[in-house]
Amino acid sequence: MGQEIERKFLVVGDSWRRAALGEVIRQGYIPTQDARTVRVRQVGDRAYLTLKGPAVGLVRPEFEYPIPVEDAQLILATLCSPPLIEKTRYRLPLGEVVWEVDEFWGDNRGLIVAEVELTSPDQVVDLPEWVGAEVTYDPRYQNSNLARQPYSRWGSVN
What we know:
The protein is mostly beta strands. Helices cover 10% and strands 46% of the residues.
């Protein structure tokens, strides 16, 4: 079974940008119930359909499949609830892990979040100086929730 094990943090400062290479991502969510998500993502000339189940701690089932870009564009335009998530994802290899920094645009402009995928829930990770508060367990920062309740509508962030 596929699974995702990740921690998520707010980003502070701009020092992470020195070694960052980014790619633009557009993604949307097909409405579901409970903590299950169905995501369609386009990254340049590639596209994916992703199914995620409810999390147990840091671990949640995840299944991802490539789909034709034309299908992804049609699904994003017709089946996904607006607004779409628009972001630039930067990958930063550091030590034994790769950090992914997402700089959001559109209705989530101003939000920058770093994620690190782990091989086990108890894996120890050295935090770079640009990593701020951990938001792993704050559901507001899940992309599926950012699509429903964008960052621009939060008011002041606690």
